Model the fold of this input.
Amino acid sequence: MTAHGWVPSGTVYGTLLNFRGEVARWQPRMDDKPYGGAPKAPVLYVKTANTFAPHGASVALPAGETVEVSASLGLLIGEHGAPTHALLVNDVSLAHDSYYRPPMKFRNRDGFLGLPLEPTPLTALGGIDGLAALELELRIHGVHKQSTALKDLVRDIPTLLKDVGEFMTLRAGDVLLIGSEVLADGARPRVVAGDAVEISAPGFKPAVQRFVEEEAPL
Done:
């Protein structure tokens, strides 16, 4: 597959624990050390520039690791600090057993953020309010693996933007990911070499990437 298309010009921030299924899965452990209770504010992480995988890119799977994929929605921030566009992403991660602030090595391998051909203007989607009923679809080789409904967000999009804005400033070109949901068993869909993953939703450009074996070092 040939990679082409858009990549973010700013910082990409992901959000943890923003879907009800994910929160319910981890709730029994939130009082354990080192957490000592559920987080009071949004829990964010950064997807660094090396993770950006444009539409059509091939992503190398780290040898010997279990890799999970997830559908998420990104909000592209405009000149005045408010979202102007939205985009679908495949937020890729190594499987791990830490719900809170997992190490960067799990989420920031090369190619671990699948991107669409281009973002979609919010004006074409009915604005922020037009996203509330959205469902994201994740398919592997065209086979449906997961649906993610934004009605299941813990913090809806306006609330997430407000709460994040209380402790940091989002700048033009930044992208805020609203989170991703788990499957019934608490995991996320997993991929192996040769898998092609598509994230789609009505009105959006899909994000499509293929996963390949990591090349052995010379």
